[in-house]
Amino acid sequence: MATAELAPHIPHPAHLRQAVLAPLLAQNAVQKAELTLSLSEDLAIFANVVVQDPGGIPGRPAKPELVSHTALKSKPLTTPEGRAVLLHAIAHIELNAIDLALDVVWRFQDMPEDFYKDWVQIAKEEAKHFLLLQKHLVSMGFDYGDFPAHHSLWEMAERTRGDILARIGLVPRTMEARGLDASPGVRNKLISAGDLAAGRILDIILKDEIGHVAAGNRWYRHVCQERGLDPIGTYRDLIQQYDAPKLKSPYNLEARRLAGFEEEELIYLAANGL
């Protein structure tokens, strides 16, 4: 079962970029999601303020055990446990995605106000996804934390903590965009195994994730324009500089188009990968 860690006490926030620290530091996974959904959009943003790092980011429950992605083992989807292992892995990705969106809000200053509003909205949608998956796991007799998970998404966040261009270039445009490619196949496998409810949840996630990757594309190009950089060439440089994971086919080109990838990028991706 999910553990009952409490969020650390955060003084009453003066602005939105400080308010996101409460869910970001929360150790209980369900509480993290609920605190994220409760973030007030009426708070001022204070884009030019330096928010002090409180330490302990991100808050994490005692379980799941975090292991290398190569140590994770799948099980047949014909069994309830096999389906639960897969859904648990997706729930873990969604929990990390909450933290990734919130981390952008407090960490990077001097962006337009719409930037912060976008990422708070993204965090709320990731929280919705996590709760849908967690509740479904409970309905199956399992819970978040019952199986090991990996930490690759947050490792990329650590590597890109010093540069907003690298963060939005490599997290939403690379690692989250991989979800656009993988989601249809995973959905079809779950439906074939008889889990129609899980299939419906993945439909919701894919629709929302297209919007999240689109936001990544939009703000990546914004920063490139501000710095006088070519978005496509710079992206390839970032892939090399930060040793980003290689993308594997098949690619969901339709979803990537909807998410704002340029045709030149998609042609290169289909021909060469990254």
Descriptive report:
With 274 residues, the protein is mostly helical. The protein has two domains: 149 residues, no CATH class; 113 residues. It is 62% helix and 0% strand. It has eleven helices and no strands. Helix 3 packs across helix 5 and helix 4 runs antiparallel to helix 7. The longest helix has 32 residues. It is globular, with a radius of gyration of 18 Å. The mean pLDDT is 91.
Short synopsis of the structure:
This protein is mostly helical and 274 residues long.
How much beta, percentage-wise? under 5%
Mean pLDDT across residues:
91
Helix percent reads 55-70%
Distance between the termini: 39 Å
Unreliably modeled segments: none
- The total strand number stands at 0
Largest sheet properties: none
Total number of helices: 11
Order of helices and strands: HHHHHHHHHHH
Could you say which structural class the secondary elements and strand pairing correspond to?
A: mainly alpha
Shape annotation: globular
Tally the structural domains.
Answer: 2
Q: Rounded to an integer, what's the Rg over CA atoms?
A: 18 Å
